[in-house]
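Possible regression after last week's pipeline update?

I re-ran a chain I had predicted before the update to compare outputs. Posting the input and the new output here so someone can diff against the archived version. Not blocking, just want to make sure nothing changed silently.
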Amino acid sequence: MENVAKFIKLLIALVACMFLYMYIDQYITDYKRAYQVEYTNTATTAGTDVEVTIPKGASARKIAKILKNKGLIKYEGAFVKRLGNSDYRGKLGDGTFTLNTGMNTLDMMKVMATKISEDTKTVQLVVPEGFTVDQIGARCEKLGICTKSDFISEVKSVPKSDYAFLEDAEIASDARYKLEGFLFPATYDIPEGMTAKEVADYMTKTFSNYYKDSYKEKGAAKELTIFQVVTLASLVERECNIPEERNVIASVYYNRLANGMPLEVDASVLYVKTNGMYDTSVLKENDKSRQSGYNTYLNTGLPTGPICNPGVACIEAVLDPAETNYLYFRISDPVKGTHEFSETPFEGNTPEGEGDGDGQE
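New output (post-update):
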């Protein structure tokens, strides 16, 4: 009888586990289906008007949280993902808006997007991957958006508390600009009359929209802050010319850091030498002895901060580097910009070679 009782208990436990598994599996299936519907839905139904207030400078995730708390959306991640893949990325404004529970998320974005009337003149500002604050400022001045000095003054001394991605950053006193690295490379339609501060906010908001939670998780797993990830990505951006080499170059930097070796990145020295303009790719031997927190020949570890504004591809390369034992690389084909890699020093050349990171116009 005792064995029968044990068998019955075991059978009941197994049946309970089976039903629990079925419940969890169904829950996950329903969640995925509902998430996908909210991500792709284009229908509009009858609903209730809801007034929402979006604070100035709110990131996509902050906006999504506000909408969820107001009962307008269920899945914050679906909203952020859809925004990042839409024409409204970086364009959601602050203020009070009337939305409706029957709206799809694209409709909500349209209402909250910065209003640009049809007769408002706009200027197309193209910011390539690898551009610096100085280069962006110079381009803004050339296009008549704002002066370079106005743009620089807006990004030079911003409070860390204004930007969530800077909260855990250890920014040295010799950092040229706190926002270097966080002005997202993209093509922007700038309305006539937009101030230098609004242009910078537009770019940093776009960065926040693109820097996914999964990036934060991967960075944290490597014990890197967002600031450190972007700093490493900026080095890869300026030194890499071939997409296929990004992850390999990132692995070289990780290997050198792990071995306590200086990174010896030419572009980090050129960043200071050219005042962020990268208008020369020539690095002389005496430049390597120039005292600076950005000088990765004199110092070990990461430079003071990012040396440009990297694109998503280089950020992803830093978060998912190739697995190699390489400690050195140098240019193998100056025309194509390809590199050769090695575990041991090259004879008669520096680890990175010459002619890297010569500006990306």
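Follow-up from reviewer: compared with the archived run. Residues 350-361 have pLDDT under 50 and may be disordered. Marking as no regression found.
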